[in-house]
Design goal:
This protein is an alpha+beta fold. The chain has 2 domains: 58 residues; 146 residues, Histidine kinase-like ATPase, C-terminal domain (Heat Shock Protein 90). 58% of the residues lie in helices and 16% in strands. The strands form 2 sheets. The chain has a 5-stranded mixed sheet with strand order 2-4-5-7-6. It has a two-stranded antiparallel ribbon with strand order 1-3.
Length: 275
C-alpha cells in the first residue's frame, strides 16, 4: 500500500513537473513573441518617422529655394524693362548685382540643405549679428517684388540697436518669408517692420494693413499645409522652427480687413544683454 502511494506521488510530481516545464517554455515563447512584436513596432515607427522627415525635408527644400528664385525673377524683370526702354542706368547694374547675390545665397541654401540631409547638425553656427542690417537687407531684396502689388516698406528701429546671437542667413529667411506673406495679402498698402529690445531679447514686429487672416486659419497657422491663399503653407512653420532653434518665440495677431502682425524674438548677444 505504502509502495503504491510512493509510486502515485512520484507520478503526481512528474506530472506537475511536466506541466511546470510546459508553462515555463510557453512563457519564454510568449516573451520572445512580445519582444519580436515590440521590435517590429519600433522599427515600423522609425520607418514612419523617417518617411515623415523625408517628406518634410523635401517640402522645405521646395519652399526655401522658391524665395531667392522669386527675388531673382523680379530683378531680372526690372532689368529687362530697363533694357527694352533703353534706360540702362546704375539701378540696372544694382538689379543685376542682386541677381548675382541671390544666386550665391541659393547656392548656400543648397549646400546647407545637403548638410542637413547628411545629418550634419553642427553646421548651424551662431554669431553676433546686427538685426537692423538683416532687416535692411530683406527690405532691399524684396523691393522688386513689392512693386508688383504697389506696396512699400517702412522700418522703425530703436537707437540702441542691439546685437543678437544668431545665424544671419536663417533670421534673414524668417524676415523674407514674413515680408513675402504680408506682400501676398496686401495691395497698395504698407508693410511696417519694427525692431526693439527688452532685457534679453530683440523683438521683431512685421505688420501689414492687408486683408487679414480668418480665425479658423489663424488657430492652426503654424501647422504645415495650412494656408488661405493657395500657397504651400510651409513659410510660417519654417519661421517657427528657425525662431525656436534660436531660443525665441513667434506669435501672430490678425483681424479680417485690418491686417496682420507677426512678432518674434531672438536672444541678444550676451554682451548686449542686461540680464
Amino acid at each position: 500500500m505504502v509502495l503504491n502511494n510512493i509510486f502515485y506521488m512520484q507520478g503526481v510530481v512528474t506530472h506537475v513537473f511536466l506541466i511546470f516545464t510546459q508553462c515555463f517554455m510557453l512563457s519564454i515563447s510568449y516573451a520572445a513573441t512580445k519582444d519580436a512584436e515590440k521590435r517590429l513596432a519600433e522599427e515600423n515607427a522609425a520607418l514612419d518617422s523617417l518617411s515623415r522627415m523625408k517628406s518634410n525635408y523635401m517640402a522645405n527644400i521646395s519652399h526655401e529655394l522658391k524665395t531667392p528664385l522669386t527675388i531673382m525673377g523680379g530683378y531680372a524683370q526690372l532689368s529687362e524693362w530697363d533694357i527694352k526702354d533703353n534706360v540702362v542706368s546704375e539701378d540696372t547694374f544694382i538689379h543685376l548685382r542682386k541677381i548675382s547675390e541671390e544666386a550665391g545665397r541659393l547656392a548656400q541654401l543648397v549646400s546647407g540643405m545637403l548638410n542637413v540631409a547628411a545629418h550634419i547638425e553642427d553646421t548651424i553656427t551662431f554669431a553676433p549679428a546686427r538685426p537692423q542690417d538683416i532687416i535692411n537687407e530683406a527690405a532691399v531684396l524684396y523691393k522688386s517684388i513689392l512693386t508688383a502689388n504697389n506696396n512699400r516698406i517702412v522700418i522703425y528701429a530703436e537707437n540702441n540697436n542691439p546685437l543678437i546671437n544668431a545665424n544671419y542667413g536663417m533670421v534673414l529667411q524668417v524676415i523674407v518669408n514674413l515680408i513675402n506673406n504680408a506682400n501676398r495679402h496686401t495691395k497698395g498698402g504698407t508693410i511696417t517692420i519694427t525692431l526693439r529690445r527688452d532685457d534679453v531679447m530683440a523683438v521683431f514686429i512685421i505688420e501689414d494693413n492687408g486683408e487679414g487672416i480668418s480665425d479658423e486659419i489663424l488657430n492652426n497657422i503654424f501647422q504645415r499645409g495650412v494656408s488661405g491663399a493657395g500657397s504651400t503653407g510651409l513659410g510660417l512653420p519654417i519661421c517657427k522652427e528657425i525662431v525656436e532653434t534660436h531660443g525665441g518665440e513667434i506669435v501672430i495677431e490678425s483681424e479680417i480687413n485690418k491686417g496682420t502682425a507677426v512678432t518674434f524674438t531672438i536672444p541678444l548677444y550676451k554682451e548686449d544683454s542686461q540680464a
